[in-house]
Description:
- The chain is of the alpha/beta class.
- 50% of the residues lie in helices and 12% in strands.
- It has eleven helices and five strands, in the order E-H-E-H-E-H-E-H-E-H-H-H-H-H-H-H.
- It has helices spanning 18-28, 43-53, 69-79, 95-103, 115-126, 134-144, 155-159, 163-173, 178-185, 189-203, 208-217; strands at 9-14, 34-40, 57-61, 84-89, 107-110.
- It has a five-stranded parallel beta sheet with strand order 2-1-3-4-5, with helices on both faces.
- Strand 1, helix 1 and strand 2 (34-40) form a beta-alpha-beta unit.
- It starts with 8 loop residues before the first strand and ends in a 10-residue tail after the last helix.
Amino acid sequence: MSGGTTGAIRVLIADDQPLVRRGLALILAPDPAFEVVGEAGDGEEALTLAHRLRPDVVVMDIRMPVLDGVAATERLARTLPGCRVLALSTFDMDEYVVAALRAGAYGFLPKDISPEELVAAVRVVHTGEAAVAPRLLTRLISAYVLAPSRPQPPAAALGDLTPREQEVWRLMATGLDNAEIAQAMDISVSTVKNHITGVFGKLRVRDRAQAVIAAYETGLVEAGSRG
């Protein structure tokens, strides 16, 4: 583990495979922008260490013994909301990933990512943004979220969306990034960002991942939809 670095992003790594934990730590620790404050071998240990060490980001394997990463993420989101979870999975198409995003994870990476992708994702999650490639997010959610299921968010909140906000939400849910949404709607990227902020507030969701999940759950879009 690295020594204390003022202003560094404090990272806790949780994975039941020691070799994976060490590999992730060796990628992050040499960079002065990060401080690897601890390593956990299961979800229960990750919770204990997170409450003791107060990391900024937890890199969390979603399939672990004792307490899996989904349950650990849900508890962390509830008890330490300032601690952001970046979920990891061996597979890029994994129903547990959607469960982790719904539980409060800020992002997802498959384990075969490059060191550069890991570093970038930890930085993005630390800022409070969602670190999931838009099209991967859409493929995941369309595969594993059944629509319509429960009415989440409430229908009243859906009615509060302006037509422009509804269209931005729909295009977001079909896998377009902000620049592509701007092009499709012939508006600026900054206007798209403003509409997305409005969508998040009215739907009472925290980020892009939860907004896309809500779009499938409410039936706004269906599996196979394209922008």
